[in-house]
Amino acid sequence: QGGALPKLAVKPKYRVCFNQSEMDNPWRLAQTKSMQDEAKRLGWTLIFTNANGSAAKQAADVRSCIAQRVDAIFLTPREEKPLTPVVLEAKRAGIPLFVIDRKVDEKVAKPGQDFVTFIGSDFYQEGQRAAEWLVKETGGKAKIIELQGSTGSSPAIDRQKGFADYIKKYPGIQIVASQTGNFTRDEGRKVMEALIQAHPEATAVYAHNDEMALGAITALETAGRKPGKDITIVSIDGQKSALDAIIAGKLGATVECNPRFGVKAFQTLKDYAAGKKVAARLVNEDRFFDKTNAKQMLASAF
Amino acid sequence: MAVAQRSRTSSWSAVLKPLLGQGALIALLLLVAFAAFRYEGFLSAYNVSSFFRYNSMFMLIAIGMTFVIVTGGIDLSVGSVAAMSSVIAALASPYGLLAGLLAGALAGALVGLINGLVITRLRVEPFVATLGAFLGARGIAQLASRQNAVSVDQNGTFTKLGQGDFLGLPIPVVLTLVMLATGMVLLRYTRFGRYALSIGDNEDAARLMGFNVDSVKLGVYVFSGLLAGLAGVILASQFGAGQPVEGVGWELTAIAGVVVGGTLLTGGRGSLGNSMVGVILLGLIFNVLNFENGKGIISIDVFWQNVIRGVFLLVVVVMQSSRLARDNH
Amino acid sequence: MMVANPKLPVQRPTVLLTQHSALLALLGLILFNILTTPNFLTLNALNINMTQTATILIVAVGMTYVIATGGIDLSVGSIMAISGAIAPLLFISSGLAPTLGIPLAVALPILAAGLCGAFNGLLVTRFHIQPIIATLVLFIAGRGIAQVISGGQLINFPDERFKFLGTSSILGVNIQIFLMLIIVIVAVWVIRSTLFGRYVVAVGGNPEAARLSGVPVVRTKVIVYTISGMLAGLAGLISIAVNNSSDANLVGQNMELDAIAAVAVGGTALSGGKVSLFGTMVGALFIQLLRYTLLVKGVPDSVALMIKAAIIVIAVALQYRRRK
Amino acid sequence: MTEDALLHMSGINKAFGGVPALRGAHLKVMRGAVHALIGQNGAGKSTLLKVLTGAYSRDSGEILFDGQSVDFTSPKQSQLAGIATIYQEVNLVRLQTVAENVLLGHEPRRYGMIDWKAMNAQARDHLNKIGVNIDVTRPLASYSIAVQQMVAIARALALNAKLVVMDEPTSSLDEREVETLFQVINQLSHSGVSVIFVSHRLDELYAACSDITVLRDGQTVYEGALKLTKLQLISTMIGRNVQEVATQGQTGFVRHQHEDEVLLDTRQMRRAPQVQDISLQVRRKEVVGIAGLLGAGRTETVRALFGAEPAHAGEIHFKNRSVRWKTPSEAIADGIAFCGEDRKHDGIIPDWSVRENLTLALLPRLTRAGIVNRAEQQRVVEKFAERLNVRCASYDQPIRELSGGNQQKVLLARWLCMRPDLLILDEPTRGIDVGAKAEIQNLISELAGDGLSVLMISSDLEELIEGCHRVTVLRDGRTVAHLSEKELNEESILSAMAHGSAADPASGEQERVLVNAGGTTSGGLHDGR
Ligand SMILES: Nc1ncnc2c1ncn2[C@@H]1O[C@H](COP(=O)(O)OP(=O)(O)OP(=O)(O)O)[C@@H](O)[C@H]1O
Ligand SMILES: Nc1ncnc2c1ncn2[C@@H]1O[C@H](COP(=O)(O)OP(=O)(O)OP(=O)(O)O)[C@@H](O)[C@H]1O
Ligand SMILES: O[C@@H]1[C@@H](O)[C@H](O)OC[C@H]1O
Ligand SMILES: [Mg+2]
Ligand SMILES: [Mg+2]
C-alpha cells in the first residue's frame, strides 16, 4: 500500500485507543494496567476496548476507534492475519497505529510504512531460550511433556516451534507428550494430572506460560513427584508467582515476556509526534529468571 | 405455551397489537437516538457501514437460527461452522471469488445436513446433535487450517466479498439483505416456511396432517448451516484470513438476538425482521460502549463492561417479555 | 373387563436401558483403557478421574434439576467465578481469624451463589423470560461481577488452609469425591421420595397441569435454580481450592457445556419431565474419562474434538434406539 | 358386496411393547356409507384408525383400500391416497391462523408462492359449509376446543377425500353443531364419500350411520347394518347380556337430597372479557350444572373461580368466608377440586405413570416431613383406579399410552381421591364410553350423598337434566337463568341458553359467539342477540 505514514501533531495531551484482545490471564491484566497507568500519569484519554478473545471483534473495535477519530491507536492483536486489514484502514483514515506484543501479517502491512512500529517480544526466541536452558540443565537428556498455549495463538505456535527447532540437535532430548493447556492454570493442572499418569517416565516439563507451569506443579505434587528435584520445569512469562516457585525450588526457570508496555509505548508515540526517528521494530529486551537471580528480581516482576 | 391456550384477544389489544412485542425495536430506536445525540461520529457513514459490515455475520446466522428456532429446535454449531467455513473459503480463495464463496457456504450446508440427519434419522435432540457439530466443526476447522489462521488470496477478487461495496453498500450487507428477503419469502409464502412454523407449534399434529416433517427439519438445518457458512465466508474475506479459533459464543449471540427480537424458543412463531432488530441491538451495545469510553468522562472500567452488557440484555428482555406477556393475556 | 393387575410385574425396560447405554459406553471406555493405557488400573488414575469429575458432576446435578423442570442454566460457570471471587475476600483480606474466616469463606459464597440462582429463577418465573436467555444474563454479567469483585486479578492464596476443600480426604477418600457422592445420593433421594422432588418433575412434565393440581410452580422453579446456583457455588470453591488460586476470568469457563452434555448423555430429556441422576453421574464420568483417554493417547486437539462430538452424539442416539 | 367395499381391513394385529391393542380386528366400509365404529374406552378404535392412516405401523394384517392392497407408512401417504382424518385429540397447529389449519398442505399458490388472499377466502368457504363463521386470520389458539374441532372437520372436508375418518369429532360439540355436522356427513355420503364415525354418544349414531363395527378388547365382535337397539349395542360392546345392561339405566345418576347450607356463593364475579357478571350458588351435597352455548364463558367462569385465572372483581364466599383464590393451590387447600376440559393441555403429565398422575394433587397429603408415603399412595391408586375401572397394563404405565377415555378416568380419580368439598367438573364425561359414563355419574351421585357438592359444566343436556339439582345458564359471560329441579327440561335450558336476557344488553354488541348454524334449520337459536 502506498503513501507515507500519517503524521501526528505535537500536543500536550492525546486521545488514544488501546485495543486489547482478551482479559483472561494475569499477563493481559498486567498489560492493560500498565497502559492505563501510564495514560493516567500523562493525563491522556485512553479508550480501552476488549475483544473477549475474538479477532473479528477486535477489528470492529479498532474501527470504532477510527470512527471516533482518535489521535492514535495501540493495537495488541489477537491474531496476525485477521487484524491486518484494519491496520491498513487506520492508515487510510490518517491515524497512526502502533502494534504491540503480537504481530500482524508483515507481508501485507509493513512496520514503519503502514503502521508506525511493532513493539514486543520475540516468541520464537522465547521458545529457543527455554530449550537452551533445559538442555543445559538436564545435560542433554530429557523426556519432556509440553503444555501448549491456546491452540492457534501466535505465542503458542512460535514457542512450540522455537523450542522444537532448538532441541532437534539433541537426540537425547525428546518430547513424549504435547497437549494444549490453554494458557491456564486449571487446565495445565488437569492435563498434567492425566499425562504424568500415562508418561511416568517424563523427566521435564516445558510450559508455554507460567500459569500452566504452576498448574503442572500442583498436579505433579499430587501424583507424588517432586517438581524441581525429579522433574525439571521451564516456562515463559516471568510473573511474580513463577519467581516465587523458582525460589521455592519447584520451577526451574522462566523466560521473561514483559507485559508492561505502557511507558515504552507512550514514549514511542511522543517520539514519533516529535518527528524523531522511530525504528520499525522495537524488540523488548527480556530477562531470564532462574534460581540465580529470582530473589533479586522478584520485586521487578509483574 | 400455557398462556397461548387461554389467550383471547379483545378488540382493544387488537388495535395495539402491532405495537406490542416490539420492545426490542423501541429499545433500538431509543439507543440510536441517544447515541446519535451524544456521540460525534456515531452516525457517520464510516461507523454505520463498518458496524453493519461486521454485524452482517451475526445477522446472517440469526436468519438461519430463526428458522431453526421456529421449528422448536436450536443450532449450537453455527459459531464453529462459521470458523470452519472461513478456513475452507480461505483455502479455496486462490481459485476466485466464486470458488471461495461456494466452498465456504457448501461446507456450512454440509454440516447443517449432518445436523439434520442426526436429528431426524437418529432422533437425537437438536441441542445434543448440534452440540456435537459444535465440537466437530471446530475440530475440522483446526485440522484443515493446521491450527493456524489461513491467509486468503490477497491479489484475487475474494477479498471484495467482505471489503468491497456494491451500489454504495458494503457487500456483506447486500448479501445479508438478499438472504433476509429470501428468508422472509420462504417463511411467509412457501410451504417450507409454513411447515417449519407448524412443526414448532405441534410436531405430532404436523405429522398427522401429512407433512414430511423430517425433510422440513432437514431443510431448516441445512439452511442454518448454509448461512453460518456464508458468515464464515464473510469472516475470511473481510479480515483476510480463515480463522479456526473464531466464532466462539456466536451461537449465543444469535440465539439471544432472536429471542430479544421476540421469538419464542418453544417454536411455532418467529419473525426474521425482529430477529434482525435483536441482533443489531445486541451488537450496538458494544459500539456504544466504545464511544462512551471515548467521551473520557466516566471511562467505564474494564470489568464493568460485562456487567453493563448483562444488565442491558436484562432490561431489553424484561421489556420484551412483559410486552409478550401482556399480549398473551 | 380387563383391568390392570398391579401385582403383575410388567416389563418397563425403558428406564433401565436408557441408563445402560451410557453405562455400557462408560464400561467400554474403561475396558479400552485397561487394555491399552499403561498404569490405568492404579488408585492414582482412579483418583484423578474421580476428582476431575467432581466439579462437573456437582454442577450437573443442579443442572439435571433445572432441566427436569424444562429449563436450562447457562450461568453456572459465572456463578462458580463469583463464589470463587468472594471466598478469598473472606479468608485473606478480611482480617478475620481463620477459625471464622474459613467457615465464612465457605458459607457466604455459597449463599451468594444461591442468590444468583434465585435471581435466575425470578427472571424465569416472575418475568416469564425463557431460561436460556434469563440465565444468559448472569452468564455475561456474572463473570463481570466476579471480575469486579476481584479487581480482575488472579488471587494466589498465601496460606494453604483453604486447600482442604480440594485435597483433604476423609477415610482415605478425597473430599471432592466424598462431596460428589453425597450430593448425588441426596439428589436421587429427593427426586424419588420427596414432595419437592415430585413437584420438580411434574413442573417439567406439564406445567399447566401441575399448576392446576396445586403444585407451586413458581416456588418449585425458583428453588431449583437456587439449588443449581448453590451447587455451582460449591463447585467454584472446590475449583479455587484445588488450584490454590482464584481467577475470576477463568473459573468455571465452559462449565455449562460440560454439565449439559453430562445430563444429556446420561439420558435426561432436555425437554424436561424426565430425570435420571444416575445417568447424569454416568454421563459426567464418561465425559471425563473420554477426555482423559484422548489426552493420554496423545490425540491432537482437533481430532479429539471430532471424536468427542461423534461419541456424544452416538451415545445419545443409542438411548433413543433403545427407548423405541 | 366386497367389490363395493371402499375399505377392507382384516386380521389387524398391533401390540404396544408386548401388550396387544388389536387382535385380528377387521373393518369393512362400503362406498358412500357412514360407518360407526364403537367400543369401550381402550377397545382399540383409535389404534385401528391410526393403523389405517399410517400413523402407527401394524404388526400384521391386510388393508385393501379402493381395491388395492395398501401399506401406508405415514399419514402423508394415506392423505395422498384419499383418506382424510380427524384424530381424537384435536391435532392442529394452534399458533397458526385458522385458515392455515384448514388448508396447510394444499394451500392455493400463485407462481409457487402461497396466495394468502385465496387461502383465507377458501378457508372461510369451507368453514361456512359447516356453519362456522369466524375470523380465519386469527390464531387457532384463540378459539375454544369446540371451534377447534370444527376447524379440524373443515380441514378434513377440504381435502376432498374418498374416505373421511372421524375419531370422536363431536365430543366437544353441542347439539346444534352436531346437527350441522350430520348434514355435512349426509351430503358427503350422497356424493359417494365414505365416513368412519367414532362416538360414545350412541344416539348420534342412529342419526348418522348406516353400518356399524363394534370392537371389544381389540377384536371385532360385531359388524353389519346398524339395526341393533341401543341396549343390544351396549351389551355387545361390554360383552354382557342385555338384561344385565338394562338394569343399569340410561345415566348413572341418583339424586340425593341436598342441604340448605350454601357452600359456594359468588356475586357479580368478573374477569374480562369472557367473564362479565356471574352469580351462582352451590349448596352442600348439591349438584349444580352450568349450561351455555359454546363460548358462553363457562370454562372461563370456573377457571376464574378456581384461581386459575383469578377473577378481577366481584365477591366469592366459600363456607361462609369471603375468599379470592389467586392460585389453584389456594383453592385446593380450601377444599375445591377442578377437573378441566382440555385433558392433554392441562390435565395429564404424559410421561408420568398412572399412579403418579392419579395422586398428583393428593401428594401433599401423602407426605410426611416432606417424604412421600408410597404405601399409602399405592392404596389410594388401587382404590380409585379400580373404582373407575381404569384400563391399563399396570399402574406404572405412562399415562400417554392409555386410551383417551381411560386418561379421563385417571384425571377424575385425581380429584375424587382429594375428597373435596366442592368438585368442579368441566365436561367430565367427554369421550367416556357409556358404561364408564354411568359409573362416573354413579360415583358423583354417591359422593354427593356423602357430602360432596358438585359444579358441573356439560354440553350433554341429558346429563345436566338427570344429574343436577339445579342448572345455571350462562350467556355472553353472564348468568342469565337459574333453573330449579322442577324447571329442568331440554326446552327450558335451550331457550335460556339462547334467549336468556342478559343483565346488560350492551354486551350483545361484542363480537363473541361467532359459530352459527350457517343457514341451517336451527340458525335461530344462535342469533339471540
Ligand atoms: N402409544 C401407545 N402405547 C402403548 N399403549 C397404547 C398406545 N396407544 C394405545 N395404547 C393402548 O391400546 C389400547 C387401545 O387404545 P385406543 O386408544 O385405540 O382405544 P380407544 O378404543 O380409541 O379408546 P377411547 O374410546 O378411550 O378413545 C389401550 O389399552 C391403550 O392403553
Ligand atoms: N371475539 C370472539 N370471537 C369468537 N369467539 C370468541 C370470542 N371471544 C371468545 N370467544 C370464544 O368464546 C369462548 C369463551 O370461553 P369459554 O371457553 O369459557 O366458553 P365455554 O362456554 O366454556 O365454551 P366451551 O364449550 O368451548 O368450553 C372462547 O373459548 C372463545 O373461543
Ligand atoms: O504468555 C502470554 C499469554 O498468556 C498471552 O495470552 O499472550 C502473550 C503471552 O506472552
Ligand atoms: Mg380413542
Ligand atoms: Mg368450556
TrEMBL record, chain B:
Subcellular location: Cell membrane
Annotated transmembrane regions: 20-37, 58-91, 97-120, 127-146, 166-187, 218-241, 247-265, 272-291, 297-319
The organism's place on the tree of life at top rank: Bacteria
Swiss-Prot/TrEMBL keywords: Cell membrane, Membrane, Transmembrane, Transmembrane helix
Keyword Transmembrane helix attached: yes
Gene Ontology MF term list: transmembrane transporter activity
GO cellular component terms attached to this protein's record: plasma membrane
Membrane topology: Multi-pass membrane protein
Keyword Transmembrane recorded: yes
Pfam family, one: BPD_transp_2
Protein name (record): Monosaccharide ABC transporter membrane protein, CUT2 family
UniProtKB/TrEMBL annotation, chain C:
Keywords (A to Z) from UniProt: Cell membrane, Membrane, Transmembrane, Transmembrane helix
Organism from which the protein derives: Deinococcus hopiensis KR-140
GO MF term (any one): transmembrane transporter activity
Transmembrane segments: 20-41, 53-72, 78-97, 104-123, 170-191, 222-242, 263-290, 302-320
GO CC annotation terms, alphabetical: plasma membrane
Pfam families: BPD_transp_2 (PF02653)
Localization (cell): Cell membrane
Signal peptide: none
Name of the protein this chain belongs to: Ribose transport system permease protein
Lineage: Bacteria, Thermotogati, Deinococcota, Deinococci, Deinococcales
From TrEMBL, chain D:
Organism of origin: Deinococcus hopiensis KR-140
Gene Ontology CC, one term: plasma membrane
One GO MF term: ATP hydrolysis activity
Higher taxonomy: Bacteria, Thermotogati, Deinococcota, Deinococci, Deinococcales
Domain called ABC transporter: residue spans: 7-242, 254-501
Domain of life of the organism encoding this protein: Bacteria
Entry keywords, A to Z: ATP-binding, Cell membrane, Membrane, Nucleotide-binding, Repeat, Translocase, Transport
Signal peptide range: none
InterPro entries: AAA+_ATPase, ABC_carbohydrate_import_ATPase, ABC_transporter-like_ATP-bd, ABC_transporter-like_CS, P-loop_NTPase
Protein name: Ribose transport system ATP-binding protein
Matches recorded under PROSITE patterns: ABC_TRANSPORTER_1, ABC_TRANSPORTER_2
Recorded topology in the membrane: Peripheral membrane protein
Subcellular localization(s) per the UniProt record: Cell membrane
